């Protein structure tokens, strides 16, 4: 529309290769379509710190109106995020933290508290005799993995009857499966606590392939609780997982807050998103409810893609007409 102010928001993602991050992108795109004149430029760092740093610096050079950053690893990405803020670009940090206070707003759920809630939940499952727990870590350099570990470790009862083993899954299914399989024997394992549902389900799959009987006994606990087929809520409702914790993407809030900043409205330094325990009590109902939501989301995504295609055809035509008129 004529005379309308245009804003470019650069979104720097650690990666867009898993369902939680895809959901975040979709939430952002859907919300952004509400605001005329707002364009999202999305960059995927493919889980590489150097790529992410480079991409943030490109946004700074380009002088985007605002940046949203979800850091792959907190330490290395901090410098580039601070550079953006110091360059006068409003900077929203989402999901994973950076190690500095130099940003405009942080949006995310409290991973330490989620880890603590998982620890308390696991305490209630401890047996009188020995209980062996396997903790499957997300990428160690990411604040979400560290906080989920620290909260869990602080809440967990540590005594001679609790044996803790560590497996590194780096958020991924493949690495988790390999490293769980490498444990060899599963007779003694009682509980698997994974930093996300993808890894909790991968651990289950790996054990299923080697020792299906053990799977019946072991309790698998994850984090994310996404709606939709094959995701966390369904996995809890069909008993694959004993519990999961909702980890909201914050995508919608990020765009809403971005719009406020761009329009000169005051915003908070922090937006704390809430989590919730999903267990067999609430998973079934929630699954049914969210199934429809997931359907809607899919439809919105399809329509959005159609619209984008139409728009780019329209722009092409517009340019061609312009060219013809020039000639
Ligand atoms: C995806 C993801 C989610 C997780 C989040 C934490 O990369 O691993 O599954 O909840 O990142 O930052």
The largest sheet is: 6 strands, parallel
Radius of gyration: 22 Å
In terms of quaternary structure, the protein is single chain
The proportion of residues forming helix, as a percent range, comes to 40-55%
Summarize the helix and strand pattern as letters.
EHEHEHEEHEHEHEHHEHEHEEH
Poorly predicted runs are none
Strand order of the largest sheet: 2-1-3-4-5-11
Total DSSP E strands? 12
Count of helical regions? 11
Ligand set = beta-D-fructofuranose
First-to-last CA distance: 27 Å
User: Mean pLDDT, rounded to whole units?
Assistant: 93
Structural class, judged by helices and strands? alpha/beta
- The shape, in one word, is globular
Strand-residue proportion: 15-25%
């Amino acid at each position: 529309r004529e005379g309308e102010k245009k804003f470019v928001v650069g979104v720097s993602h650690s990666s867009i290769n898993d369902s939680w991050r895809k959901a975040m992108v979709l939430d952002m795109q859907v919300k952004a379509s509400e605001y005329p004149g707002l364009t999202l430029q999305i960059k995927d760092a493919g889980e590489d710190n150097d790529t992410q740093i480079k991409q943030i610096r490109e946004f700074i050079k380009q002088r985007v109106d605002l940046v949203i950053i979800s850091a792959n690893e907190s330490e290395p990405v901090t410098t580039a995020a601070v550079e953006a803020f110091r360059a006068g670009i409003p900077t929203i940090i989402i999901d994973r933290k950076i190690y500095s206070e130099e940003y405009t707003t942080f949006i995310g759920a409290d991973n330490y508290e989620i880890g603590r809630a998982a620890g308390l939940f696991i305490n209630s499952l401890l047996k009188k005799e020995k209980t062996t727990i396997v903790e499957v870590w997300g990428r160690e350099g990411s604040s979400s993995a560290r906080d989920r570990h620290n909260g869990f470790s602080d809440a967990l009862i540590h005594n001679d009857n609790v044996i803790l083993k560590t497996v590194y899954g780096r958020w991924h299914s493949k690495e988790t499966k390999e490293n769980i399989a490498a444990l060899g024997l599963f007779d003694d394992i009682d509980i698997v606590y994974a930093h996300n549902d993808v890894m909790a389900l991968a651990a289950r799959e790996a054990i299923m392939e080697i020792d299906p009987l053990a799977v019946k006994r072991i309790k698998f606990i994850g984090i994310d609780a996404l709606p939709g087929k094959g995701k966390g809520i369904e996995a809890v409702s069909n008993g694959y997982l004993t519990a999961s914790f909702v980890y909201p993407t914050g995508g919608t809030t990020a765009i809403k807050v971005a719009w406020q900043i761009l329009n000169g409205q005051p915003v908070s330094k922090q937006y704390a998103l809430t989590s919730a325990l999903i267990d067999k009590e609430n998973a079934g109902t929630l699954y049914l409810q969210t199934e429809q939501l997931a359907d809607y989301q899919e439809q919105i995504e399809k329509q959005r893609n159609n619209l984008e295609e139409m728009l780019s055809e329209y722009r092409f035509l517009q340019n061609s007409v312009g060219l013809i008129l020039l000639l």
